[in-house]
Amino acid sequence: MSGLAAVALASVALRERRWLLTASLLGSLSALLLVTSWLLASPGVTPVDALKTGGLAGAAVLALYGLWINDRRRRTEEARHELDRERVSDERFAKAVELLGNDADQVRVGALHVLAGLARGRPAYTQTVLDVLCAYLRRPFSHASYETNPVDPNRAEMLPTDAQWTEEYRVADQERQVRLTAQRLIAELLPEADAVEPAYYDLDLTGAALEYFELSGRQLGQLTARRARFYGATRLDGIRAHRIALFSWAVFSGRTDLHKARFDGGLSLFEAQIHGEWRVINATARRMVDLRTSPPTQQIGTLTFAEETTVKTDHPTDWAIQPGPKVDRMAST
Question: Is 2 exposed, middle or buried (0-12, 13-18, 19+ CB in 10 A)?
Fold first, then answer.
């Protein structure tokens, strides 16, 4: 069907060009006759001069047709090149996604960089690439250091010496480096917090195991991290979430930095577990905040709510919060 459609379009374009050429020739001839006749009626103009001027007028019409044809040909070539670039980009994208399942960790890292490169070169790919990177991080993963030292996995000690366990650790550690690369690329693809009129990209990290996760100074649309596990320090300082940030049932093992974070679309910590230090200096939230969970034992700073923010909490006196005016504080039901 596509081949027949292309032939039909080519036939239509050919008929259109023929019609325009005929019209241009008639227009050129008309210009020649009109200008020559008008000049012949003018006193002091010889027939030769009148004919020369009429010929120039007719030639100008043909020249305009030639310019139009060249411009149309240029735009057609540009459209064809754009289609070729899109085809090549689609092929690179499909190949990179396929390589994410390769056994070699260096191949997976390379595939992640190819995807990030596509997103940088063609913004239309950015959300799709971010979805793929998030999907990669949502894959089941565990590392021995998460069990021995979830607060700071880099300082975890390797206790077992069994050969099989050591091999499993090596494989897990290789995958760990790939995942850290994916996390870093996600942050790099998001616009900076001071960007003017940026695109709002969404992140879905539901159930992901995240290590030293950092989105410092970035802005995004919706951040979904339900049941996510955050190991080591989590840096969300200076972020701006324009839509809701969902951390329901998430587990924060290490220090969490929300200094100057802005949750303009709302914030949910429903049933989240906050074990480490919780820094919310100059952090603000709007619309809805769900704090129906145990408050952190090491909170530094005060979480401030904008006007008319709905706050849900089981422990209204245990959270270091500062509601703005017209805040409706609702107890959980």
Answer: exposed
Residue-wise pLDDT for 168-193, tens only, equals: 888 899 999 999 999 999 999 999 98
Q: Final residue of a domain: which of 27, 59, 88?
A: 88
Tell me, yes or no, whether 142 and 252 share the same domain. Answer: yes
Instruction: Please state the domain count of the chain.
Output: 2
**What is the spatial distance between Cα 28 and Cα 58, in angstroms, rounded to a whole number?**
4
Residue 308 has pLDDT above 90, yes or no: no
Work out the angle between the directed axes of helices 105-121 and 47-99 (0-180°, nearest 10): 150
On the question of pLDDT at 316 being above 50, the answer is yes
Q: Write the single-letter amino acid at 234.
A: T
Q: Residue 200 in contact with residue 220, Cβ under 8 Å?
A: yes
